[in-house]
Design brief:
Elements lengths: L2 H11 L16 E5 L2 E4 L4 E4 L2 H4 L8 H11 L13 H13 L6 E5 L2 H19 L5 E5 L8 H6 L17 E3 L7 H12 L3 E6 L3 E2 L5 E2 L2 H14 L2 E5 L13 H4 L6 E4 L11 E5 L1 H5 L20 H12 L3 H21 L5 E7 L2 E6 L8 H12 L2 E2 L6 E4 L7 H17 L1
Parallel strand pairs: 3-15, 5-6, 5-7, 7-10, 10-11
Antiparallel strand pairs: 1-2, 2-3, 4-12, 8-9, 11-12, 13-14, 14-16
Helix pairs in contact: 3-11, 4-11, 7-8, 12-14
Bound molecules: pyridoxal-5'-phosphate.
């Protein structure tokens, strides 16, 4: 296809996510990608400052993962996953169980981050049904983002993204954003008043991502987890964004030294090559579904559950999360710290924050997600060969782990230039 044909076909037939087609610019056609860079039709190299929506973990077209995918595609590309199994899934589940925090030893596969969350919520609800207790309540954080399917939207913070669907979302008990409010006092009151009705508490550990890259303290996470344990409710950690080294250690829960009952994984799970969701639970949770009675089995499954090619990619990605990779992540964090310290004195910059490979700040006087300033920065950055996608007035960099310090420094330089001229 010629360059023109790609764009013409796209404009005639494609509906893009989170895109206002009435005003969006013509999409940029990307021909190939390598490491931290995307290449357009003219072979212009664009630094992927957001890991293509936080999925690309080690780098684009990482050779070991690409090879694992090609090999697996020639051996077993897909098979039904009820009554059947295969090595890529069984081995991946074993290998993940060994590195997940605590005894999250049982893995349920799905398709993406949203379905990993749906599965977690459904497991929690059916767990209590199987136990024989009526626990209709789920508690979730203000400003949370857990995905775009209905259950995931229900537990996400309510606002612009969820407004058109409001009447169809189930009610949850809302806890304050720990980066801004006294979450523990509200949780304590909830547990005292209605703890026996609480099925689960769901959180994004340490980082509320799409809700504005809000970072909160490890002690809050520890205290929330401890309260859930004491009240006997299930604690769900949504590590779709934070998993696989993004916050420093392999998992944000590990950073805070907590062990959830249920963890949701996706995005970086396959190194960012293929969609795959995974919900891992403690053995004690799984056991509540094991019985001679078929009506107690977990009622959930997707056509592509545990797709062998995606599982092979995930195993290859996991092998790459070694010491050398940790050193690269530390180097990225060091650049964030140094550059954001510098930027924090800029009059247009507020609330600089760093968590592992994430560096973020807020633009002063921004009016929220639809504020044009974020789009203006994204356009400016793209003209300077950097892919950014600010969340309204929240600017962040979350690059792939292969990123070199000088590549990240250059991205900060472009941002600083924009601040000076805007
Ligand atoms: N949970 C978290 C914490 C996320 O950040 C996201 C996506 O950004 C999701 C769930 C949903 O994942 P997906 O877009 O793969 O459905």
């Amino acid at each position: 296809m010629s360059d023109g044909d790609v764009i013409e076909s796209d404009r005639a037939h494609v509906w893009h996510p989170y895109t206002q087609h009435g005003s969006a610019r013509v999409p940029l056609a990307i021909k190939r990608a390598k490491g931290a860079f995307l290449f357009d039709q003219d072979d212009r190299a664009i630094f992927d400052g957001i890991s293509s929506w936080w999925v690309t973990l080690h780098g684009h077209a990482q050779p070991e993962i690409a090879r694992a995918i090609a090999e697996q595609a020639g051996i077993l590309e897909q098979v039904i996953f009820t009554d059947f199994t295969h090595e890529p899934a069984a081995a991946l589940a074993r290998e993940l169980s060994a590195v997940l925090p605590g005894d999250l030893s049982r893995c349920f596969f799905s398709d993406d981050g949203s379905t990993a969350v749906e599965v977690a919520l459904k497991i929690a609800m059916q767990y209590w049904s199987n136990v024989g207790e009526k626990r209709p309540l789920i508690a979730a954080l203000e400003n949370a983002y857990h995905g775009d399917t209905f259950g995931a939207m229900s537990v996400s913070g309510r606002g612009l993204f969820t407004a058109p669907f409001q009447d169809q979302l189930f009610e949850v008990v809302r806890l304050p954003d720990p980066s801004a409010g006294d979450v523990l006092a509200v949780l304590d009151k909830l547990i005292a008043d209605r703890g026996h009705e609480l099925a689960a508490v769901i959180v994004e550990p340490l980082l509320l991502g799409a809700g504005g890259m809000h970072v909160y303290g490890e002690q809050f996470l520890r205290d929330m987890r401890e309260r859930a344990r004491r009240s006997g409710t299930l604690f769900i950690a949504d590590e779709v964004l934070t998993g696989f080294g993004r916050t420093g250690p392999l998992f944000a829960c590990e950073r805070a030294e907590i062990e959830p009952d249920i963890i949701c994984l996706s995005k970086g799970l396959t190194g960012g090559f293929l969609p795959l969701g995974l919900t891992a639970v403690r053995e004690e949770v799984f056991e509540r579904f094991v019985s001679d009675d078929r009506s107690r089995m977990f009622f959930h499954g997707h056509s592509y559950t545990a797709n062998p090619i995606a599982c092979a990619a995930a195993r290859a990605s996991l092998r790459l999360l070694n010491k050398e990779c940790k050193a690269r992540r530390d180097a990225i964090e060091a650049v964030h710290r140094e550059r954001l310290k510098h930027l924090s004195t800029h009059p247009k910059v507020r609330n600089t924050r760093v968590l592992g490979t994430l560096g973020a700040f807020d633009l002063a006087d921004s009016s929220g997600y639809l504020d044009k300033i974020g789009r203006a920065l994204a356009e400016y950055a793209l003209r300077n060969n950097i892919l950014l996608r600010p969340l309204g007035g929240t600017v962040y960099l979350l690059p792939p782990f292969c990123t070199l310090p000088e590549e990240l420094l250059n991205a900060y330089e472009v941002i600083a230039r924009f601040l000076d001229i805007s």
